[in-house]
Amino acid sequence: MEKTKILLDEDEMPRKWYNVQADLPTPLDPPLDLGTGEPVGPEALAPIFPMELIKQEVSQEKWIPIPEEVLDIYRLWRPTPLYRALRLEKALKTPAKIYYNWEGVSPPGSHKPNTAVAQAYYNMKEGVERIATETGAGQWGSALSFGTCLFGLECMVYMVKISYEQKPYRKVMIETWGANVLPSPTNTTNAGRQILERDPECTGSLGIAISEAIEDAATHENTKYALGSVLNHVLLHQTIQGLECKKQFELIDQYPDVIYGCVGGGSNFAGLFLPFMGDKLRGEKPDLQITSCEPMACPTLTKGLYTYDSGDVAMLTPLIKMYTLGHDFVPPPIHAGGLRYHGDAPILCKLTHDGFMDAVAYHQTEVFKAAITFAQAEGIIVAPETAHCVKAVIDEALRCKETGEEKVILFANSGHGHFDLAAYDAYHNGKLVDYEYPVELIKQSLAKVPKIE
Amino acid sequence: MEKTKILLDEDEMPRKWYNVQADLPTPLDPPLDLGTGEPVGPEALAPIFPMELIKQEVSQEKWIPIPEEVLDIYRLWRPTPLYRALRLEKALKTPAKIYYNWEGVSPPGSHKPNTAVAQAYYNMKEGVERIATETGAGQWGSALSFGTCLFGLECMVYMVKISYEQKPYRKVMIETWGANVLPSPTNTTNAGRQILERDPECTGSLGIAISEAIEDAATHENTKYALGSVLNHVLLHQTIQGLECKKQFELIDQYPDVIYGCVGGGSNFAGLFLPFMGDKLRGEKPDLQITSCEPMACPTLTKGLYTYDSGDVAMLTPLIKMYTLGHDFVPPPIHAGGLRYHGDAPILCKLTHDGFMDAVAYHQTEVFKAAITFAQAEGIIVAPETAHCVKAVIDEALRCKETGEEKVILFANSGHGHFDLAAYDAYHNGKLVDYEYPVELIKQSLAKVPKIE
Fold this sequence. Notes:
The structure is a homodimer.
Chain A: E1 5-6, E2 16-18, H1 51-58, E3 63-65, H2 68-74, E4 82-84, H3 86-92, E5 97-102, H4 113-125, E6 130-135, H5 139-150, E7 154-160, H6 161-166, H7 168-176, E8 180-184, H8 190-198, H9 206-219, E9 223-225, H10 232-238, H11 240-251, E10 258-262, H12 267-281, E11 289-295, H13 300-303, E12 305-310, E13 319-324, H14 346-353, E14 358-362, H15 364-378, H16 384-403, E15 408-413, H17 421-428, H18 439-446
Parallel strand pairs in A: 5-15, 6-7, 6-9, 7-8, 10-11, 10-15, 11-14
Antiparallel strand pairs in A: 1-4, 2-3, 4-5, 12-13
Helix pairs in contact in A: 1-10, 2-4, 3-15, 4-5, 5-7, 8-9, 10-12, 11-12, 15-16
């Protein structure tokens, strides 16, 4: 009989992260200084990141050892189970085999702690006592507060004010793990005060919160900054997902034909697909299909420009080569808050641009419809972000039903939707709206992308 | 190196539930008819329960096979991991070994689906097409809607109105799995209409919701009623927990010295301890200590009377022998809504009365303090109900630190607190209040217990 879950014992957990930079046919384009247009060296990042993470950011080593102390924490929920979605297959009457790795079993409920724990560890090792970060709806803030709590660091979270007020549960999680959390803009930073002077009622944005967190790290002693996606070292830490999955597929003598995941900044999906992508880059799996799923309201990979742009609204970060909708693009307020970023991880963007993977975009009502089909077949209520790849998987499985193909489908089930049930409620009540693909907005924001080359 | 999690493969899942009635030194006292005072036969329950569950209720067979279709659903999250709380032990500097089985990995997030799935299955097998039930804060309603969804049954949930309005997320979960949910009192039943005529603004109670659900089942075709705790067949289904735990302890060559769990109706804790209790009843483990943890605000086992009483406010159920605070006792509004029942499962009550186990009671602020210690050591944010036994475990571990005893402690980690973060918020902000042990209220409600002997 087919198993529902393929488990690994914690002794079988991978001991090294996989660094795809070693297998890329051509190297990543370096980050550039906005002023000079010249490549940025590691020293530019030293004020805000610990040295070990800066090294990982540019490393060309294929395998990076996972410290024992990080493995010890991973054991609290890893290895995560690889599920076979037998009941979904049956409901769809598809000959396809559908698998997913389930990251919702972590205490914060998503893949985010895979890097939060690692980042907290390296900061602790280098004597940092306090980390500042920003969070939108609270996924990253709760993961980092979990990580810093376990390593005894202080944590300061700048949470976008409208989320702080409307979605208080993630805030309470952050506090339960001992971190401080303030609604951004605050009056504790220059960046925050300037905004509040102009607009005392400002409800905040991720861009403002990033500015506050970076200023906090730069102006407090023994304090660094941490980012939850996009950067190479974040993707590196997330590869624990795909490495476990490869072992699990070996146990059942299978290999995926196609891999789907949702993409906001790209770290979750990259964490799953990169170890498989390595096989493709080395020519061992030329036919493997890897597809990013994004919202029509923020179609970075399907409608964006592949160029150098800033990672944040205030242009505090170096310029990075990526698909972008323009650094000041503000997408419509879809429920998948984690997919509203204007850019994507440089590694994922390069692989997409170079033709090793592709992307699709969906409207949110079709996405929630798919999530409910999934919940009623498999039980799990996924996060709205994850629901984007569930939609792609169901479509693929139905195509297989037409063609009779017995494709092996894998997708990244990145987290639960326990704090997103208001969005499901809106769907049930017919109140969920689809936003037009914002052509004019994107045209305007792309016009402001710095001209480099 | 010590493992953090002891896992079983799904092939190692127990195939039979354990029925402690076969091992009891003296039989359970039978339920009695309120009018005649005579024992109630199975036929009295036939209008509201399927025959197989009525048989299980009175069965003296030691082992009851788990149907394959139920095992198939259990595989979605079972076997659950047995955790060793290494980080909590270290934080407490205790020589004790602390273990817990983690039921929060089920899609509804608690132990409740262990019986919800079984009950939905037996109803489906007997041609029932629709199940009615009540729910307070929504734990049971969401578990039953999950179970009925997977077996293609309709489900009607009467949810206490104040919870429906103040805690809408469990309601959305129930709807996501396809069930109907109405705020009780409704105007769709006689019981509900009578209440609303007297008090149109009534915010509902579990007692009213039970009356509505039983009336619904009795007046709709092909509809039965389902109860989420207290009854013998519910405890039976929950023994899958303890049976898995015993196998996991065998794998590491350990056996608990003391077992703790929180008790509302008692099915969760009994599900964990009964297979171990069997060893004690057979004289194999005479020194095993089993302790129920309950709230000081609803101290059924520590302050109640062991006598025949009704299971519900409206006295619709037969009289059952149990510890009771009186069937119309309404406890103070503590956050652990699942521990506010006036009685307890007859099996657990008899074992307590006969001296095979004991009980302790706690105030809620000390309980939340323990839960936060646990969250900061182990990562998991537990439900307020579960937090009661976490308090007992931490106290026991600290006693072991004094005495140097290397006791093996096991506790029932029955579910996550993702929908209870408002209570954690109240704790963080110093707004959590402790309620005096309600002596006068209990005296008044005990005076109304029917006199039977």
